[in-house]
Each structure stands twice: as C-alpha cells, then as structure tokens.
Amino acid sequence: MVSRRCLSMDKELVAPSVSQTQAQWPCSSCTFLNEESQTIRCAMCGTISPEGKKRSWGSLRPMSAIPAAMSGRSPFTHLVVLDFEWTADDKRPMLPISEITQFPSVLVQLSGRTSCVVDEYNSYVKPTLNPVLTPFSTQLTAITQTMVNASPPLPDVLGQYLAWLQSHGLVDERHSRVGNWSFCTWSDADIGSQLTKELRFKDITMPPCFDRWVDLKTLYRQHYKREPRGLQKCVEALGLEFRGRAHDGLVDSQNTAEIVLVMARGSSTHPSFVFRRATRGLDREGNVFGAKRNKRT
C-alpha cells in the first residue's frame, strides 16, 4: 500500500444550499437536487434546464425507484475507486465462473478544489477454480502465473481489504459503511457482475459496504456531454496523460481516480462536480438495482 498526502490547492467550492422540499429535480450535469421552483438553471453548477422540457432521470430509474441510501443530498466525503482484473480467455468461456486475480483500490478524498488521493491498496489473488492462467489472460493483464501462485485466495484478500477500509474509518467491525462515501468503478461489471457472482458461487458473504457504487462512465457522460469511449481516451480527452499499462488493475484505478479529481476540482470550462449519490447498488438478495434499461453497460 502506498500513502499519498493531500496537496493544498485553491480554496474549496461551497455548495449552494437548497431547502428541504418534496418537489425536486436532478440536474443532468452535476446531479444536484434542485427545488421544483428553480425551473431554469441548476443552483449548483448553473446548467440550464429549458423551461417546459420534462425533466427525468434519463436512462436511470426515477428517484422513487432508487433507495434513499443512494439518493442522499449530502455530498460524499470519499470515493473508493476500484478496478478488478479477472481470469479470461479468448477461445472459451471461463467455467464455472471467472475469478478475480487483482484487487486494487485508490482512496480519494472529496473536498472540491482540494480533492486528492489519500491512499492505495493492491493485492493479487490466487484463483482456485481455474488455477492456471490462460495465455490470453496473462497477455492482457501482465499478471503472471508466478504472481498469482504467490498470492492469497479471495477470502483472505477480501479480509485484508476490509481491514484496509477499516483503518481509514470507512467501515466498522461488521464491515458496514461508516460515514457518507461510495465505491466508484468504470462500468458496473466489477461489483455488479464479477464480485457478486464470484462471492455467491464460492458461498462467501457479500460485505454490506458493497451495497452501492458510482458508475463513473454514467456521470462522465452527464458532466461532459459526450460518450465515454474507453478509459484511456477519456483520460486523454481531459488533457491528462494516461500513466502506466492499461489493464493493470491498479493503473486503471489510478487513472479513473484522476478523472474523479478533475471532475471534483472543476476547471475553466466545467464547474466542480459534486458527487452526492450512487448510480447503482445491490438489494438484500444481491440483485443489482438502478441499472440502465435495455442497454448494456
């Protein structure tokens, strides 16, 4: 694990206050919940909402269908950015399931213009159902057989990871979330598909802190008004350099975190984005809700 000290930047942006009300509409750019009376311009970022145009959640389910835990108005204090790598093959499906081979994260503190990376976690994982990596998997991720052979299996890595979250005061001894934060991924596949399926197949209890996450691709599209055409292209579209080897889980997490920082700090062309709600989550049965309808992620 590598710790990183937050660097001082310009003074923090302060979110405008919106009074409690039943009638609210979400800004399509920053997702801030505005009062219904504010019909023209978002109180947070200034995005214009044409008068008379029906406001909606677009491809997401309406607010009433998203649990209250996902729709809170208080900004997140942190995002835990993660990007798993898992077993794969270009010739056949991984049966009975694919398995996580790298479990990384980057912890981002959200504080407007002073948002920064606080810490990182990274561990390789030993697969047990298909313990021998395919040539395709190694070529894609650069994770070798020697690396996974020397690594602990998923239950042990998951325990170490939860201890890391607890060391930052993000979960309690029962692994429930402490405070207002969320996981952040580039698509729903990491938690909504891979982690959920693998834990279920291996009869491992899903830690309750994984009940919600932010799909950054969705918010990137809303904020910048353009389609996210791959992680590296999105990083470079913001004037940043994609650092490291793509498909290394930690590298992808770091570059995803860079997008989070640019959005949170704001720029001369785009206001500071306030992360205040999750876009996806799991119900008590481990089923994904808040997902897009009739579209692949």
Describe the structure.
With 297 residues, the protein is an alpha+beta fold. It has one domain: 2-Layer Sandwich (Nucleotidyltransferase, domain 5). 24% of the residues lie in helices and 15% in strands. It contains 7 helices and 10 strands. The protein has helices at 135-141, 145-149, 154-167, 189-201, 216-224, 231-237, 249-265, and strands spanning 24-26, 33-35, 78-82, 85-86, 100-109, 116-124, 181-185, 212-215, 280-282, 288-289. The strands form 2 sheets. Strands 3, 4, 5, 6, 7, 8, 9 and 10 form an 8-stranded mixed sheet that branches. Strand 5 (100-109) and strand 6 (116-124) form a beta hairpin. Helix 6 (231-237) runs parallel beside helix 7.
What are the SSEs and their pairings?
Elements (H helix, E strand, L loop, with lengths): L23 E3 L6 E3 L42 E5 L2 E2 L13 E10 L6 E9 L10 H7 L3 H5 L4 H14 L13 E5 L3 H13 L10 E4 H9 L6 H7 L11 H17 L14 E3 L5 E2 L8
Parallel strand pairs: 3-7, 7-8
Antiparallel strand pairs: 1-2, 3-5, 4-5, 5-6, 8-9, 9-10
Helix pairs in contact: 6-7
Summarize the structure.
The chain has 297 residues and is an alpha+beta fold. The protein has seven helices and ten strands.
Count of DSSP H/I helices = 7
SSE series: EEEEEEHHHEHEHHHEE
The share of residues in extended strands comes to 15-25%
CATH architecture: 2-Layer Sandwich
Structural class comes to alpha+beta
The CATH superfamily appears as: Ribonuclease H-like superfamily/Ribonuclease H
In one word, what is the shape? globular
CATH topology: Nucleotidyltransferase, domain 5
Classify the oligomer. single chain
Mean pLDDT: 82
